[in-house]
Structure formats: C-alpha cells, structure tokens
Automatic annotation (TrEMBL), chain A:
<feature type="domain" description="RNA polymerase sigma factor 70 region 4 type 2">
    <location>
        <begin position="123"/>
        <end position="175"/>
    </location>
</feature>
<dbReference type="InterPro" id="IPR039425">
    <property type="entry name" value="RNA_pol_sigma-70-like"/>
</dbReference>
<dbReference type="InterPro" id="IPR007627">
    <property type="entry name" value="RNA_pol_sigma70_r2"/>
</dbReference>
<feature type="domain" description="RNA polymerase sigma-70 region 2">
    <location>
        <begin position="24"/>
        <end position="91"/>
    </location>
</feature>
<keyword id="KW-0731">Sigma factor</keyword>
<protein>
    <submittedName>
        <fullName>Sigma-70 family RNA polymerase sigma factor</fullName>
    </submittedName>
</protein>
<dbReference type="InterPro" id="IPR013249">
    <property type="entry name" value="RNA_pol_sigma70_r4_t2"/>
</dbReference>
<comment type="similarity">
    <text>Belongs to the sigma-70 factor family. ECF subfamily.</text>
</comment>
<dbReference type="Pfam" id="PF04542">
    <property type="entry name" value="Sigma70_r2"/>
</dbReference>
TrEMBL record, chain B:
<keyword id="KW-1133">Transmembrane helix</keyword>
<feature type="transmembrane region" description="Helical">
    <location>
        <begin position="106"/>
        <end position="128"/>
    </location>
</feature>
<protein>
    <submittedName>
        <fullName>Uncharacterized protein</fullName>
    </submittedName>
</protein>
<keyword id="KW-0812">Transmembrane</keyword>
<keyword id="KW-0472">Membrane</keyword>
<feature type="transmembrane region" description="Helical">
    <location>
        <begin position="56"/>
        <end position="76"/>
    </location>
</feature>
C-alpha cells in the first residue's frame, strides 16, 4: 500500500502539483533524519543535510524508475549525502572499535539495562547508537528500524551482501561493547552478585 | 559458541531498538523543505528545455555580438546613428530627430538584449509556469 501511495504522490508531483511532496516528506522525514543524525552526530548538520536530501530527492524525482522501493532510493540518497558531508568536513569521530576477542557479556548488558528506568535506558541506547561508526550506525538503523532486508541494505550502502552481513555483525558487537562501557559498574555489579 | 552469541545479540538488539524511537527533526522541517522546493521547477520539466537552451543561446549570443560589431564598423564610428543618410529614399524626417539623439551603441545593445531574451523564452516559460503553480 505504501509503495502504491508513494507512486501516486510521485505521479501527481511530476504532473506539476508539488504540494503532494509534503506527504512524502512527512512519511520519510524521521527515518532520514535519524540516519543522517546517527551518521553525522550533530543536530545542526543533520537538519541541513536532511533538508538537502529532500531537495535532491525532489529534483531527481523524474529519474526514479520504480524498479526499487521508493524508500530504498531515498535512503540511498541520504546515505551518500552523509558520506559527502563527512568528506567535506573531514571529520573523525571518536568511534569505538571492539576487539573480536572482547568478551561482551550479553546477559550482563541485558540485565544491567533492565535495572534502569525506561527514560534512562532509552538515553543510554541512543547514546550507544550515536557512538557507532557512521556506516555501522546507518546499517543497524536500516535493519532494525526500517526492517530492510540485507539485500535492500546492500542497494543503499553499496558493496556486497557479505560485506553488509559482516558490518551488521560487527555493528551489533560494537553496540553491546559500548553499552557495557556506558553502564554504571554498580548496575553491572548488582547483576553479578545476583548470579553468584 | 560464536553462532550462539550472534543469535543472542540479534535477539537483544531487536529488543533494544524497539525501545528507542526514531529521532524527529524540528517541527518546521517540512515547511523549510517545501519552501526550498517552491523555487524549483517541476521535476523533469527542465530536462525538456535544457537541450534547446544550451544549443542555441551560445551561438545566438556570439552571432549577435559579431553582428553588432560588424554593423558598428559598417555604419562608421560616429557618435550618432545617422539613419537619414543610410536610407535616403524614405522620409524619416518625422521620426529621425529622436532616433538621432540615441547613441548607436545603445541601439545595438538593446537589439542584442532582445535577441538574447528571445533565445531564453523556453527557460522563462518554465520558470514562470512554476511560479504560478
């Protein structure tokens, strides 16, 4: 239904009624903004780039052939706009790299998070996602929020399917590593005492 | 072991991502985007006019400039455009006096501008059509 609706709006816009574009902006603004924010890690830059994404989508609308999902096409533009913005600013974020042998302690993280209030837990998870390297953050967002398949994510970020699979695995591992680091040692100790 | 850990991570990730919502941009985000696109042509409409524009404007500009220079050279380098002496068989008495007061470079510049504007009619048409929408 969503794809049909998207196509209906696109046809209307191409016929000359640009007011229909507001429906498309409304539908995709949160996800586009979330991807951009998680990649650029700065709200002002994210607003600017997210707007650029929607302007670019509008000007290129005639070239959308409909062979892929419209959402996938938008995310692809957003992903590449972010890479351009990062290249321009030549920014290096303090992202976390997790050693393959690092013991994450999934139960520890799960129970540690369980001890927290909902709002605090949300904040910690959001912070952890923001600490991820830009491509890992984008892949995890597309996979878990938009529930895109690995094949669709490959279309968005480029590269091979195996590459995306590896990045998804590493991204998850990094996320848990960051969460473990962010959790208060006391919170983790409560759980550890309980298991002994 | 690795496979098991991966499955556990996958399950917990799903749970974690369900807890956090997507971030929303400012409340006027939509308005800002719509404002930006309001000055843009309808998608795809420029492509239709791009070819004639790029194809004709540059040659017409060059021809107009060369033509203007040639005309100035042909009619002499005097300060006033002496239409009476060039077209003696017509009685231009009535209209010649205001024309004679206009420097000929101004006349040629206006002619060149008119030709350039004419060449850009397709582009102007698209621009105005979008503004009226």
């Amino acid at each position: 239904m969503t794809n049909q609706e998207d196509q209906f709006y696109i046809t209307k816009i191409l016929e000359g009624d640009s007011s229909y574009y507001t429906h498309l902006v409304n539908r995709y603004k949160n996800l586009v903004y979330s991807i951009v924010l998680r990649m650029l890690k700065n709200e002002d830059d994210a607003h600017e780039v997210a707007q650029d994404v929607f302007v670019k989508v509008y000007t290129s609308l005639a070239s959308f052939k409909g062979d892929a999902k419209f959402s996938t096409w938008i995310y692809k533009i957003a992903y590449h706009k972010c890479l351009d913005a990062l290249k321009k600013k030549k920014r290096n974020f303090d992202t976390v790299s997790i050693d393959a042998t690092y013991e994450i302690g999934i139960d520890q993280v799960e129970n540690g998070l369980g001890q927290l209030e909902t709002a605090e837990r949300k904040e910690i998870i959001n912070k952890a996602i923001l600490s991820l390297k830009e491509d890992y953050a984008a892949i995890l967002t597309l996979y878990y929020f938009e529930e895109l398949s690995l094949k669709e994510i490959t279309k968005v970020v480029g590269g091979t399917l195996d590459n995306v699979k590896i990045k998804l695995y590493r991204g998850r591992k990094m996320l848990f590593g960051i969460l473990k680091k962010q959790l208060d040692p006391e919170t983790l100790a409560i759980y550890e005492r309980g298991t002994k | 072991m690795k496979e098991e850990q991966n499955k556990e991570m996958e399950a917990l990730s799903k749970k974690l991502f369900k807890e956090v919502e997507l971030q929303s941009p400012d409340s006027n985000f939509e308005f800002k985007v719509m404002e930006q696109i309001s000055s843009l042509p309808i998608p795809g409409s420029m492509a239709k006019y791009k070819a004639p524009f790029s194809k004709w404007v540059i040659p017409i500009t060059i021809i107009t400039l060369i033509g203007s220079i040639l005309l100035i050279l042909l009619f002499g380098t005097g300060n006033q455009y002496d239409i009476m002496s060039k077209l003696p068989s017509f009685n231009f008495e009535a209209i010649s006096s205001p024309l004679q007061r206009i420097p000929k470079t101004v006349i040629f510049a206006m002619l060149a501008l008119a030709v350039l504007l004419f060449a850009q009619i397709p582009i102007l048409k698209v621009t105005f059509k979008n503004r009226w929408h």
